[in-house]
Amino acid sequence: MNKAQWKIAIKFFPTALQWFLNSCLIMLAFILSFLLLKEILEFFKILLTGSSNDYTLILANILLFFLYFEFITMIVKYFKDDYHFPLRYFLYIGITAMVRLIIVEHEHPLDTLIFTLVILILIICYFIINITPLERPKRSQLFSKNHEN
User: Fold this and answer.
1) Which of 44, 97, 100, 112 has the lowest CB atom count within 10 Å?
2) What transmembrane ranges does the database entry give (predicted)?
3) Domains: count for the chain
4) Is residue 48 part of a domain?
């Protein structure tokens, strides 16, 4: 392989990986959409039959619904923001998942305390993200690419 072919291959490789990643995310979005619809059908089954009086199960299903919803929203946001996942969506998903764990797995008080501490840490991280500026500071002359030695 000569130098010109190598440069073309190096330029093509990130594009091919981006296409692969986008295809996988689209497939994941369809799978999550299917699971979201399945969860809606489960809600209708519970409402119409009235067979379940277990409210923790119903709350766990609602939170699972929101997890699917948040993941699909995050994928949509990824494509709208030029292939970038906003960090705050991961925090939303983490908080929702931890609340779901507290509702489903609340038999052990120490585990529940740890889960609530994780939620507190995630909320503190969200607060820190909101108070930091959205734009990165300008690079100093020391780290500039145009800086001559």
Assistant:
1) 44
2) 12-37, 57-79, 86-104, 110-129
3) 1
4) yes
